[in-house]
Fold:
Amino acid sequence: MSSKKQKHARKSTSALNGHLKSFFPGTNKPLIDPSELLNLLPDGGEYKKLIDVATQKTVLPVDVIKVILAEIQKIRGRSVVCYVGNTIRGGSRSSISNEDDLPFNEMIRTIPETEKEIDVILVTNGGLIDQVPKFVNTLRPRFDVVNFILPDMCMSAGTLWALSGNSICMRKDSYIGPIDPQLPDKTGQYGPIQSLLNLVHHIQKETDELLKNGTPLPWTYIQIINQIPYDRLGMSITLTEHAKRIAASYLREYKFRDWTTHSTTGAPVTEQEKSDRADYVAGLLAQNSHWKSHGHCINRGRAWDELKLKIDRAEDFSGLESQLRKLIAVFRLTFDDGRIEKFFVSSEYNLLFFKIEEVAR
Structure:
């Protein structure tokens, strides 16, 4: 990093830290040096120790995160950026949305043009599916290789985004989720829109059997069918195909790009096999009737065995698992307060989304 960029990064971090201190109680406590703090965190007990330290000293999360990212960059040999939403006590700004576009683009522009590979550390409960192609369109023309590291939760639209990576790396405790579309009901609560389609298929199957036997159709079924909003039924089909098409195209173009040999037989992989596998993975991830719940957690074992999706293991990269646990502990400590919604952090960039009501105070 040039001295000018270093000065700018220090100034930016200092300003943000000052802002954070105004939000966190106990700012009269002495600051703890990030490297000193990280050395205190025992393997497997990072979160508990971090809480203990935070009762005695002021922990400024951005400083600590940047030290951890520097270690991850050494391990991985490439630039690392963080997009992390509050999956613990998040509000309206914690999910993937159009609001993310500007800060994410700014963060990516801070990476030197000579660097052609990047790791994206991604934690999210999901969000707006149509924001994902914007992220991908920012990353893909700029980098030859884009890898995703998933240290914790990466659900819904986050899973879709991760499918655009050349590789996906997960911890044993990490998980992805289904990509079936969600829409709000009359009360504003989001739910799987495919549930309507599943209900229609169920009634169709039941009534077909009744008609074959000459049995009158139950009045209840007729009433249910009459009350189903047909526009939402149509949207269930359209939006599901939309999600499947995006997922399959990412898998074919990026995730399966370097898949050239079958691991079991050693036979070469054909383009048709790549396309068929992409359609299979996308179709299964988008199938609500298979997972039963949009919040279903798919760990790396099921991703590999059931989805046939190759997942790298964090522990296979020396030191990475330990650094990711520390990173999760810092994010959890910060998010526990409930006022910070999202982090955008890299070695030269840091921006946080606060809850709107907190910013307005």
Observations:
- Residues 5-26 have pLDDT under 50 and may be disordered.
- The chain is about 50% helix and 15% strand.
